Amino acid sequence: MIPLHSHPSGRHFLQIPGPSNVPDRVLRAIDNVTIDHRGPEFGELGRAVLSGMKKVFKTESHVIIYPASGTGAWEAALVNALSPGDKVLMAETGHFATLWKKMAVKLGLEVEFMDGDWRHGADADKVKARLQADTEHAIKAVCVVHNETATGVTSNIPAIRKAIDAAKHPALLMVDTISSLGSIDYRHDEWGVDVTVSGSQKGLMLPPGLSFNAVSAKALAASESARLPRSYWDWKEMIAINAKGYFPYTPATNLLYGLYEALDMLFSEGLDNVFARHDRFGEATRRAVRAWGLEILCKNPAEYSSVLTAVIMPEGHSADAFRKTVLTHFNMSLGQGLSKLSDKVFRIGHLGDLNDLTLCGTLAGIEMGLDKAGVPHRKGGVQAAMDYLAGSAAAPAVKAA
Ligand SMILES: *Cc1c(COP(=O)(O)O)cnc(C)c1O
């Protein structure tokens, strides 16, 4: 068949904050024959990816892999550790925190939602005050989104842990790292997190379809008496059979091939280098945004996200019309504003498989798009980013011959 439209040359720029660009190596790995998930080869693969994921979460405890989107892993965290009517304290950081809260309500939990302005992270002082007031220990869990993908704000998880400890409160700490794991430093054990939730399609550079729980001994003990109904998500059967590298139901075998490859890429670059690379991209992007004279949504520089930057559109201009211009003319997808930020912000994803030039191309597409869409701005954003990238130390992209 003759195509009605010519194929756009060059690669599509997928600069939304997840799904992120999937590296060729990962795509090639996924393109292998599906094997018997009860056969001997599979056990080796299962053990390798489970142990690799422990290194990424920085935990000695259990990691669970579900064939599910991140939303499934949210549900798994709640239903394994809690009982109907349990009180949970959740922080309103943005759209994703709000979705997790809605899920908790649907599951029959009693949620106290600490309100936020969608421009700051979770407030550790508020958590501490609220827990200190809960002398009966009615609150069973504190839930925080590490990197709020709707706003580009990263919450300080060690500060939340300290707040819980200062209040001498036994609540479990649950953290959503769906958009931060593999891009921003995260330490499940050291930070005393009980359940960490994550997903495959953001920092881990995989297609959507896998999600994760990292589970502390305390969370596992809580699951013994927790009474929310659960079956598919049950940690117990998973952990028992995972010991030999197998799963209680058919796993997403081909995505696990991809995970094996992605883990190899992350470890060969070195997790600390991966985090430093993302920090540089975040800083370069913010310099571009400031040079354009536009406003960054995140108000607290200590909470700037290294995964994405949300940019406020000038009054009277549509963020969605601008994104459409960029897609039409430059074949690049930028993230849309979600729920109350709809049409008011656009989000620049700078996570996963990208390098200095990918970022420069992304920022060039935005600068040209601002011009084409008639959005008031100053020129020189790309130049500001280039000056920073060329002048700031980074691990060599390619080893010298
Ligand atoms: C993407 C995302 C989710 C939702 O994950 P799905 O895979 O779409 O179910 C939840 N929380 C955060 C922080 C996210 O970035």
From TrEMBL:
Which Gene3D superfamilies does the record associate with it? Aspartate Aminotransferase, domain 1, Type I PLP-dependent aspartate aminotransferase-like (Major domain)
N6-(pyridoxal phosphate)lysine sites (modified residues)? 202
Q: What Pfam families does the record point to?
A: Aminotran_5 (PF00266)
Recorded GO terms, molecular function?
A: alanine-glyoxylate transaminase activity; L-serine-pyruvate transaminase activity
Keyword terms of this UniProt record: Aminotransferase, Pyridoxal phosphate, Transferase
Show the InterPro entries listed in the entry.
Answer: Aminotrans_V_dom, PyrdxlP-dep_Trfase, PyrdxlP-dep_Trfase_major, PyrdxlP-dep_Trfase_small, SP_NH2Trfase/AEP_transaminase
- For binding substrate, which residues are annotated in this chain's numbering? 347
Enumerate the Gene Ontology biological process terms.
Answer: glycine biosynthetic process, by transamination of glyoxylate
Q: Does the keyword DNA-binding apply?
A: no
Aminotransferase class V domain: which residues? 14-320
Cofactor(s) required for function per UniProt: pyridoxal 5'-phosphate
Query: Matching PANTHER family, A to Z?
Result: ALANINE--GLYOXYLATE AMINOTRANSFERASE, AMINOTRANSFERASE CLASS V
- Recorded family membership: Belongs to the class-V pyridoxal-phosphate-dependent aminotransferase family.
**Protein's recorded name:** Aminotransferase class V-fold PLP-dependent enzyme
Query: What is the species of this protein?
Result: Parapusillimonas granuli
